[in-house]
Predict the 3D structure of the following.
Amino acid sequence: MKVSNPTKYTLRTIALVYLFVLLMVPVGTIFYRSFEHGIVQFWEWITTPAAISALQLSLLIVAIVVPLNVVFGVITALALARGRFPGKGFLQAVVDLPFAVSPVVAGVALILLWGHGGWFGGIESLGFRIIFGFPGLVLATLFVTLPFVAREVEPVLREIGTEQEEAAATLGASNWQVFWRVTLPAIRWGLTYGIVLTVARALGEYGAVTMVSSNYPGVSQTLTLLVHSRYTDDYNEFGAYAAATLLMFVAILVLVLMSLIERRAKSRLVDASESTSGDVELTEVDLTPPHGPASVDAKQIVHPNAQHKEGV
């Protein structure tokens, strides 16, 4: 379908205005209010003991949640894309459950399971506190970030098929070698994107963690909870803006690092392919027959894909 230039420019303008109003204006306002009193005041707001502990706690949660989700997500994606087993449809629905269930509902469910009087609440008698402690924050974040890696890797696995894996297995590669040298390089971009989404969601999660957190600074207060606490409890608007800006800085830094890693991996792949293609040379093969007339040439140059035909 051909679209006229006025219609094309109108659609582009509408899209840009929509993104500017809903994205750029709020983010720009937060940045402006954060630095309204100068960078010195901003630095003081983000270097308080509460802010430092909240940042450390958020990064620690990310460091725990991301590896667990990578392992679970890749295994789940392999099962959904390669496996045939009873209950596969049920597993598909379970993986998508965090997309449909509100994070607040997930927090309430965790309280019913792990809280005092819950199904597993007896574990608190052993001195291991789940709800209103750090383990509860990890469980809540795991729940809301569970689908991202699996849902990004599964379509990539379906797209690449199983031919390369079967060829590697036929040549004698073990299951681990097939996964490490064939499957993992093929899914690396989907896996990278799933990791980025997991990190972003883990850093910005509020609904589930607010239900299972005591919101005590240094104990179970993440950056998102710090922003809410400063804005509603302390009536410190500028401190809340500074904490929100710090959270955005961390998220942007993660995105930049992942982009650099992806670009470096692509450049290595291109260099490897160029070096491999440059090493291809024509070889001379000795085709001197063991018995035959002396008129047969001693050496012949064999070109790739050449077919030798003999006449009867």
Q: What stands out?
A: The radius of gyration is 29 Å. The first helix runs from residue 5 to 34. The longest strand covers residues 283-286.
